[in-house]
From TrEMBL:
Residues 1-138 form the HTH marR-type domain. SUPFAM superfamilies: Winged helix' DNA-binding domain (SSF46785). It comes from the Bacteria. The lineage of its organism: Bacteria, Bacillati, Bacillota, Bacilli, Bacillales. This is MarR family transcriptional regulator. The keyword S-adenosyl-L-methionine does not apply. GO terms for biological process: response to stress. Keywords: DNA-binding, Transcription, Transcription regulation. Gene3D superfamilies: Winged helix-like DNA-binding domain superfamily/Winged helix DNA-binding domain (1.10.10.10). Coiled coil: none annotated. InterPro entries: HTH_MarR-typ, MarR/SlyA-like, WH-like_DNA-bd_sf, WH_DNA-bd_sf. GO terms for molecular function: DNA binding; DNA-binding transcription factor activity.
Length: 146
């Protein structure tokens, strides 16, 4: 593969990612949230109660930043925090009733807005794109080279 093609592919990926990040940020702001807060709520909405460490890994932020974001969500009464009774080193986070209500309204609206950007793209194209981006992500995380 030519170096120029790789550069163009990376540029396209970064620009596309940035454009989607901006749309997600707008949706988060529409709901009175920062994009990182929205990401945490989305994780909890889809996967339920999670240990803090998994939340940090999913949202791709440091443990210090995770504490800050979770504290903000606690203050907004959108999540609850529970210490594990078997292992006090583990703390679980889950949506509060208010957080659940917010996400039941906000996430479907968000998803509908995101779907519009995929108009005109066939399902097989999306599947191919998913396979390619998974391979790229795996290689980038491992620092692999061929």
């Amino acid at each position: 593969m030519e170096t120029k093609q790789v550069g163009l592919a990376i540029e396209a990926l970064v620009r596309t990612s940035g454009a989607f990040h901006q749309r997600i940020k707008e949706d988060a702001t529409r709901n009175g949230l920062h994009v990182t807060e929205f990401s945490v709520l989305e994780l909890l909405y889809h996967q339920g109660r999670q240990p803090v460490q998994k939340v940090a890994k999913h949202v791709l932020i440091t443990s210090g930043s995770t504490t800050y974001v979770l504290d903000k969500l606690l203050k907004k009464e959108l999540i609850t925090r529970t210490v594990c009774s078997e292992d006090r080193r583990i703390t679980y986070i889950e949506l509060s009733e208010q957080g659940q209500h917010l996400m039941q309204q906000a996430f479907p609206e968000h998803l509908e807005r995101m779907k519009q950007y995929f108009d005109g793209i066939e399902e097989d194209e999306i599947q191919t794109w998913l396979e390619i981006t998974r391979k790229l992500g795996k290689a980038a995380r491992k620092g692999e080279r061929s």
